[in-house]
Write a structure and sequence with these properties.
Largest sheet: 6 strands, mixed
Shape: globular
Structural class: alpha/beta
Order of helices and strands: EHEHEHEEEHHEHEHEEHHE
Helix content: 25-40%
Length: about 230
């Protein structure tokens, strides 16, 4: 299974539940969605792909690696601004407050979904042009989180679920849903995938996986599919 880096913690727990319910063993490759799509397009032996945005799935549909009509929205997420736990910054009133920082960690806004979402938010707020030169792009959203957690950068924009999983950062601003693009994870079987892949995709939409996703802070979007072991 190839999945966005931000899903790592939740998906490992879901996979354990799937295997305990009699499902096949799940082997993961976590990375930025654009890098994963590039690998799949080049022929990597993926059977399931979960992208942090729809564009990467559409890319694989055009390449013939995902059959049109098989992808579905699985989860939602939100953006937050984080600072190191020891930072003196307590809260931000809005995106313009980011201009107080000399550097800003973002997953690469040229290609990584988390960075693209953040850039779109800042463009809507009309501060992107002023901030773009301060952005330190990272390989994926977990790398942006790590850079802030280590104190190497004074602030960053990541998913709320990533921030919730670290005790070394603090959230100083939650981006309102009305101000940001919808963050949607899209799941799809890769063309030629075996039945076990379909079983796992069904499990992802079932009640046990949905409970795990909620506990990790995601908003489940897909439901109703049967899954092995209930």
């Amino acid at each position: 299974m190839f999945a966005a880096a931000s899903l790592a913690d939740a998906f490992k727990e879901v996979a354990s539940a799937f295997e305990a319910a009699g499902g096949a063993r799940v082997v993961f490759n976590f990375a930025a969605s654009n890098d994963l799509a590039r690998q799949i397009e080049a022929g990597a032996s993926a059977q399931v792909f979960v992208s942090a945005n729809r564009e990467q799935v559409e890319r694989l549909e055009r390449a013939g690696r995902v059959r049109p009509g098989t992808a579905f929205p699985l989860l939602g997420n939100t953006l937050v601004v984080i600072v190191p736990r020891t930072s003196k910054t307590r809260s931000l009133s809005g995106p313009r407050d980011l201009l107080a920082f000399d550097r800003l960690a973002l997953a690469d806004p040229a290609g990584v979904p988390a960075g693209i979402y953040a850039r779109e938010w800042l463009e809507r707020a009309r501060v992107w042009e002023q901030l773009a030169g301060r952005v330190v792009p990272t390989l994926d959203v977990r790398a942006a989180l790590s850079a802030v957690a280590a104190g190497n950068l004074p602030a960053g924009v990541v998913y709320a679920t990533d921030a919730a999983g670290s005790d070394r950062v603090r959230v100083v601003y939650r981006v309102p849903a009305t101000d940001a693009p919808e963050v949607r994870y899209i799941a799809a079987p890769v063309a030629g995938a075996p039945k076990a892949a379909a079983d796992f995709l069904a499990f992802l939409r079932g009640p046990r996986a949905r409970e795990i996703f909620r506990r990790h802070g995601f908003a489940p979007l897909a439901s109703g599919a049967a899954n092995p072991g209930g």
